[in-house]
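Researcher: Last one for today. Full complex below.
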Amino acid sequence: NAGVTQTPKFQVLKTGQSMTLQCAQDMNHEYMSWYRQDPGMGLRLIHYSVGAGITDQGEVPNGYNVSRSTTEDFPLRLLSAAPSQTSVYFCASRAWGRTEETQYFGPGTRLLVL
Amino acid sequence: EDQVTQSPEALRLQEGESSSLNCSYTVSGLRGLFWYRQDPGKGPEFLFTLYSAGEEKEKERLKATLTKKESFLHITAPKPEDSATYLCAVWGGGADGLTFGKGTHLIIQP
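Model: Here's the assembly. Have a good evening.
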């Protein structure tokens, strides 16, 4: 099992550019989510999904878009990048509605918006 | 609204010097409390899940405990490789994810 994988590892964008952060998991987890991590702050939830075709907003959703067409993949789209979106982004997955509820994280994508 | 407060923010210990990290929380209906370890430049690595007050779990030099208001991560005779940021998170059962604390940055000096 590869667990949760994310690409790219690092990205530099100019203000106004768009991009997609990729996330995939091979654990057949129903629940997937995106967090951002900023210095001095805890991990904050951006968007989440409890299954294919179902997504919802977290704590800080503005400027981001998600879709869930398969169980395995949960891409995060930045529509028009802003310097405030400079951060480290983590994708996570866990089982949903089952006894095992541990959430596993990917290695992260470091994004710099100039 | 769920809240998690971790203390201290940073802790420097000598190798072999045992200590504890604190995680205080407020949540309506705790479904799980999670401890993660995060190394610089990496994603959080799962350590423990605790589900109810009185529960304890151990892994090597780490032991996590849970009460109705807080959790402790006890580190016994730490080694330099235990240096990392330790994150605490709670889940209230909703679909809106885990609520994380800001973490405790632990440094173990040889």
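The longest strand of chain B covers residues 19-26. Chain B has a mean pLDDT of 94.
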